[in-house]
Design a protein that fits this description.
Layout lengths: L8 E6 L6 H13 L4 E4 L11 H11 L4 E4 L2 E2 L5 H15 L3 E6 L4 H6 L7 H19 L7 E4 L4 E5 L11 E3 L4 H10 L2 E2 L10 H15 L8 E6 L7 H13 L3 E7 L3 H26 L9 H4 L19 E2 L6 H4 L11 E4 L3 H12 L5 E4 L15 E4 L6 E5 L4 E5 L4 H8 L4 E2 L10 H7 L6 H4 L6 E7 L5 E4 L5 H10 L5 E8 L1 E2 L2 E10 L3 H13 L5 E8 L8 E8 L4 H8 L8 E10 H4 L13 E8 L4 H12 L5 E6 L21 E8 L3 H9 L18 H5 L2 H14 L16
Parallel strand pairs: 1-2, 1-11, 2-3, 3-5, 4-5, 5-8, 8-9, 9-10, 10-11, 13-15, 14-15
Antiparallel strand pairs: 6-7, 12-13, 16-17, 17-21, 18-22, 19-20, 19-21, 23-25, 23-26, 24-25, 24-28, 27-29, 28-29
Helix pairs in contact: 1-9, 3-5, 5-6, 6-7, 8-9, 17-20
Length: 745
């Protein structure tokens, strides 16, 4: 097969001389400086004149910023594949996805045996390499649950724990010349890496034919396999002559990665700065003339996992590098949210607002649902779906202080609140933002933002002064006090219904250290505990904000209540005076208080989201936790009809903002209730929740999945205004699928 359509890449093959290690590293840096894509090193662990290749790869990766690193090729008989898998994944994570694995079955067996490895016949060495690939890929596959059992006679793991997962899909290239090794390349490898000096005329074509045949027999497309080639030094008299020499290798033998061997920086500079662009252009010209399709190719197994209803071939070219499909490595890390397991047909990992806009335009042409994800932590589970499109804002995570005097901060929608706190705390600033650091900026800020500084600061959205929004037509607008003011009003409380917020400008509060108190109560007398806690909260200074979480009794412990309380300041005397009365409201099982930065209260863990069984969430806002409210919640906990019940303090500064200032209009209540349970218990939870109808005067939209939540989330005047705004900015109802506004069309 002549041209496989791969993008051309260029690299170097540097000798790992131990006599002058810094010179070796210098040539690697030069390879990057002169525009090359890859730097490689041979691996002969038994050669005392050479540096250890893996140590060198690690050092070079840390000494460069862009270039890919690989062994050329690693000696698998002396590098146990299970350890090599972890080493490669670790280096890939540390380097930001810049590792490739070139592997070999071993050649100099006397030297290998002298280093302690058992001798193998050529056939055994191929079998061992085959097993090694299974072990390596299996340990990288953290999407598959359970321990790994793989390998066989020479390399076997039995019950090994998978992970870590690399930062990107690490390619495995094999150095191969003989038929069995070429067959292994076709069946399992991502690339073929021979050296031109070891090949006789015609052997490239013969090797490609054998690889292609093996690939087809394994159900693979031969275009999945990159063809690399180690070249000797420069022999041509000019760049044009060199292009003429290499062009047939690309067009007739399918080579797409050319690796220059040698330790001459002048040759490296010529190769990277002159030959590489000239050869790329020459190949592009020939491909255009021949109509050769170029680009990556997905395997048949991956194609079979595509979702019906999505035209994958129509994905815009600008998004080709940021989409994840069900058949891709890494799909497991992006398919689900914290609570909800999802199976989207396509995840767009947008890099910027322009990508989000392009994704919206594409999603509108597809007849599938689409969702938007910032952090993916929301318990309502609106950030994934089954068979649809997810626009993931995780890469839009910048945190920037625009004006330190005003404490004006710009936050990307994909930033996690724990990272925001970590940036702002050293500057004496904080933004009240939920109670868990892995929550994303976007989802929380457009819904409200009930946080642990809430009674002194207000809702998160109360301090948003501007927002960048991608609209339904794919346009990007700025909403602030001077332009699109109606959109800014709607974004603050109903942002998901009118567009996709990609960034906000928000005013932080002057906050240094705070006092964090955690108290665990025996909640056997749940109703009395609730009433006492709520009364104490309402009677406390506004510097105090508390969240109380109730957990049903289990076999070995009573029902418990966990209070997380923050005093917004470092006045420990005042904090103690406010906190001590909380120790008298019920039996205390544990207590702890400490002075720490707000970033210590809200830390981002960046945990992987695996989802779970379908859940249901009910919520409500109440003016007071009356005995009637407390009794319903207590009965709910006692009956085990909720996995968790939480009561959040939301009064104080929250209620100082006028009700018509934002689309979040609930400015009279002091507490926010929520309960979460499994889908099977939904009917029981709903029956219990209806008993609160007279007390609940509103709903926080992120904490409720009830069928009646629209009218409770937005009072009549607010809903009318919101529908009018949506009619202007989203006339076709592209957004708001989770809570349709029923806008007249």
């Amino acid at each position: 097969m002549p041209d496989y359509g791969h993008a051309l890449t260029f690299g170097t093959f540097v000798t790992p001389q131990a006599a002058d290690p810094q010179a070796v590293v210098g040539l690697a840096r030069a390879s990057e400086r002169h525009g090359l894509d890859l730097v490689t090193f041979q691996d002969h662990p038994y050669q005392p004149a050479f540096l250890d290749t893996w140590t060198l790869l690690s050092w070079v990766a840390a000494s460069t910023t862009r270039i890919q690193v690989a062994g050329n090729v690693l000696n698998v008989p002396l590098r146990p594949p299970a350890v090599l898998a972890k080493a490669a994944a670790s280096l890939d994570l540390l380097s930001g996805g810049r590792v490739a694995l070139g592997l070999g079955s071993g050649a100099f067996w006397d030297a290998i045996v002298a280093m302690g490895a058992p001798r193998m016949t050529p056939g055994q060495a191929v079998t061992a390499l085959d097993e090694a690939i299974d072990v390596i890929r299996g340990l990288w596959d953290t999407d598959t649950r359970g321990v790994l059992r793989a390998g066989g006679q020479f390399h076997a793991v039995d019950g090994a724990k998978r992970g870590p997962s690399p930062a990107h899909d690490i390619p495995i290239w094999l150095g191969a010349y003989k038929p069995r090794m070429l067959g292994l390349v076709g069946r399992k490898a991502d690339g073929w890496l021979p050296s031109l000096s070891y090949l006789q005329p015609g052997q490239l074509a013969e090797g490609n034919a054998r690889i292609d045949e093996a690939a087809r027999e394994a159900g693979r497309d031969p275009r999945e396999i990159r063809r690399l080639l180690n070249l000797g030094g420069i022999t041509a008299s000019s760049i044009d002559a060199w292009v003429d020499e290499l062009l047939p290798l690309a067009l007739e033998d399918g080579v797409s990665t050319f690796i220059l061997a040698g330790d001459d920086e002048r040759a490296i500079a010529l190769f990277g700065e002159e030959l590489a662009p000239a050869l790329r252009e020459a190949v592009a010209v020939e491909r255009r003339a021949a109509g050769t399709a170029a680009g990556s190719v997905r395997s048949a197994a991956a194609l079979a996992k595509r979702a019906a209803g999505i035209d994958y071939e129509a994905v815009p070219a600008s998004l080709a590098d940021v989409v994840v499909e069900p058949g891709d490595r890494g799909y497991g890390a992006v398919r689900s949210t914290y609570v909800w397991a999802g199976s989207p047909g396509l995840v767009v990992q947008a890099r910027d607002a322009a990508d989000v806009a392009e994704a919206v335009r594409f999603a509108r042409t597809q007849h599938v649902p689409f969702a938007v994800r910032s952090g993916g932590h929301g318990i309502a589970g609106r950030a994934t779906n089954d068979g649809g499109i997810v626009i993931d804002l995780g890469a839009l995570d910048a945190v920037e202080v625009l004006d330190a005097d005003r404490r004006l901060v710009r936050l990307g929608a994909g930033a996690h609140w724990g990272d925001v706190a970590a940036t702002l705390s050293p500057l004496g600033m904080a933004i009240s933002s939920g109670d868990y650091g892995d929550v994303g900026v976007g989802g929380l800020v457009v819904a409200g933002g009930q946080g642990l500084l809430g009674r002194s600061y207000g809702l998160t959205l109360d301090h948003v002064v501007a927002a960048d929004v991608v609209l339904a037509d794919g346009s990007i607008v700025r909403a602030d006090a001077e332009q699109h003011t109606d959109l800014l009003w709607a974004v603050r409380g109903a942002g998901a219904a009118v567009g996709i917020v990609t960034a906000v400008e928000i005013e932080a509060a002057p906050v240094g250290d705070v006092v964090l108190a955690t108290v665990v109560y025996d909640a056997t007398d749940t109703a009395d505990l609730l009433v006492g806690w709520a009364a104490q909260v309402e009677g406390s200074p506004l510097e105090l904000t508390s969240f109380l979480t109730l957990v049903p009794a289990s076999r070995d412990q009573p029902a418990i209540a966990h209070a997380m309380t923050v005093w917004a300041g470092d006045d420990t005397d005042a904090a103690i005076a406010a906190l001590e009365p909380f120790l008298a409201i019920g039996p205390v099982l544990q207590q702890r208080a400490s002075v720490l930065p707000y970033s210590g209260v809200l830390q981002a863990h960046h945990s992987r989201h695996e989802g779970g069984a379908p859940a249901t969430v009910r919520g409500g806002l109440v003016v007071h936790v009356t005995p009637a409210v407390a009794r319903v919640l207590a009965d709910l906990v006692a009956a085990g009809e909720a996995q968790m019940v939480q009561v959040r303090a939301v009064g104080g500064a929250v209620n100082r903002t006028p009700a018509d200032a934002t689309a979040y209009a609930h400015r009279t209540q002091n507490f926010s209730l929520s309960a979460i349970t499994g889908e099977r218990a939904r009917a029981a939870l709903d029956r219990r929740w209806r008993l609160l109808s007279d007390e609940i005067t509103g709903v926080y939209r992120s904490f409720d999945l009830g069928d009646d939540r629209l009218a409770r989330a937005y009072p009549p005047a607010t809903l009318d205004r919101l529908r009018a705004v949506a009619a202007v900015y989203d006339p076709e109802g592209v957004f708001g699928h989770d809570l349709p506004l029923d806008v007249p069309r």
